[in-house]
Amino acid sequence: MPAAVLIVDDEKNILLTLSQSLQLAGYRTELASSGQVALDVVSARPVDAVLMDVKMPDMDGLTVLAKLTALKPDLPVIMMSGHGTIDTAVKATQLGARDFLEKPLARDRLLVALRNALKHQAAMEELQELRAQLGRFDMVGGGPAMQRIFSLIQRTAPSEGRVLITGENGTGKELIARALHQHSKRKGGPFVKLNCAAVPHDLIESELFGHEKGAFTGAVSVRRGKFELAHEGTLFLDEIGDMPAAMQSKLLRVLQEGELERVGGAETLKVDVRVIAATNKNLEKEIAAGRFREDLYYRINVVQIHSPPLRERREDLPDLIDTFLREACAKNGRRPLALSPDALAVMSAYDYPGNVRELRNLVERLAILCEGPVVSRTDALELLPRGRPLPPMPEPTVGGDAPPVAPPAAQAVPAAEPAASAGGWKPRVDQTFREQVEDAEREIIQRVLAHTHDNVTEAARILDLERGHFYKKMKALGLRRGQSEA
Ligand SMILES: Nc1ncnc2c1ncn2[C@@H]1O[C@H](COP(=O)(O)OP(=O)(O)OP(=O)(O)O)[C@@H](O)[C@H]1O
Predict the structure, then answer these.
(1) In the list 35, 88, 234, 274, which could disulfide-bond 59, CB 3.0-4.6 Å?
(2) 418 in ligand 1 pocket by Cβ < 6 Å?
(3) What span, in angstroms and rounded, lies between the C-alpha atoms of 14 and 22?
């Protein structure tokens, strides 16, 4: 069956011309003269791709695009505009458009964009299908830390044991929770999530347990809570360390007895729910400070899975970057980008305070902004937050005693330019002398730490600094050690 393309434009003659053109190329077409009609069509009938104008009178194309992607996240949308600015194109891409075409449309270019979008869609569906068949976790990482996590998931998932997942933000705690659910006997049941930090304290009880009509102002109808919704499935309590004290004791009761009452309700409801909790806090410290109940901690912490920060498992970076790059290129309808070894070295030396989430966003930005087919070292340097990117260190010589090779001037990061490239040197007006010196010191220390794989003793030795002094310097410059010292 030919693919169905929905064309959205307020100009009738454009709708008709495009429709004819696409029909000649073998597509079925649906026409919508406004954003609202487009939304109605997509809600009512299956559509394989959308071709939409940006400028429309009632609802502009970008607004419709945002609504469409919320409605059907996987539906490929190609935007077109006669007044296309780079800003609009970037915004459209960020909102999930697969491509951006300038009017008047060249027929060939339109057909290529459409073919690519549909091909990409088919490939993504195939990938999802394969992943489901293989029963693999949707997680990347071949290093020892991830392997430990996979093995824990495999052993823990089939049990009914409660799991506490710990780790910094963006390290993949939710993915672990989902993998536990997908590999449990409850996988046919619901996976329900509540972020305890995101709900106002006075609403959290009704979020968890639901409420009866009239239980409080605003409770206009009966509402089932997350526990009820997760019946025969898994409830993922994210940021459990932020749960208010009063709620902690109520939660404890449900965990002990499997029973609850809706807010304002008298009936006791029985629920069968496996709870998986996650936190970025040190709950033992929270207990010591009197902010978290010890008995609740033991209830939720039958098995603990720790997800280490990305800077402690840099060995996973190549796989993660490769996966995210492929996904982001496919999502943005462009050919897969290759990563040069220099770019990988730069990206591997950064410490990712936002962990895998930050890496994913950075790579997505690369897929949008990188112009050539290969991500160069300069692309990577431009991508990383200022002052943090690091040029690659020369490989340590094995068994030889050749002096360390100084990186060529062109490799210097912007902050170090004054010292490194006398020819192209320009005075910096945006930083004081002291700030420039600190930037240079920070860069030297980061380079050496990257070179020694975060072995502080070795780094201090290379720089001929006393270890204690080196630590103090790191602290003063706001640097943290990414990996334990050997
Ligand atoms: N091992 C991994 N493989 C692939 N993607 C990953 C991995 N770990 C994390 N991600 C991706 O990183 C992002 C953050 O992951 P996730 O939301 O699971 O982290 P989190 O620790 O629960 O974060 P937070 O504490 O902020 O809620 C998501 O886009 C997720 O898909």
Answers:
(1) 35
(2) no
(3) 12
Q: Could you identify the atom of ligand 1 that is nearest to the CA of residue 171?
A: 21
Q: How many CB atoms lie within 10 A of CB 448?
A: 22
How far is it, in rounded angstroms, from Cα 394 to Cα 391?
A: 9
Ligand 1, atom 9, residue with closest C-alpha = 172
Quick: pLDDT tens for 319-342.
999 999 989 988 888 888 888 888
- For residue 276, the domain's CATH number is 3.40.50.300
Bridge pairing between strands 269-270 and 259-260: antiparallel
Q: Give yes or no: residues 336 and 465 share one domain.
A: no
The span from the CA of 448 to the CA of 264, in Å, is: 62
DSSP tally for the chain: helices H, then strands E = 20, 16
Decide if 251 contacts 259 (C-beta within 8 A): no
**Are 377 and 418 in a shared domain?**
no
- Encoding tokens for residue 425? 């040197």
Number of structural domains the chain divides into: 4
Let me know whether 354 and 449 are in one domain. no
Range in 196-200, 205-209, 445-449 the model is least confident about: 445-449
Q: Which residue has the tokens 């057909």?
A: 111
Q: Which domain holds residue 335?
A: 313-383
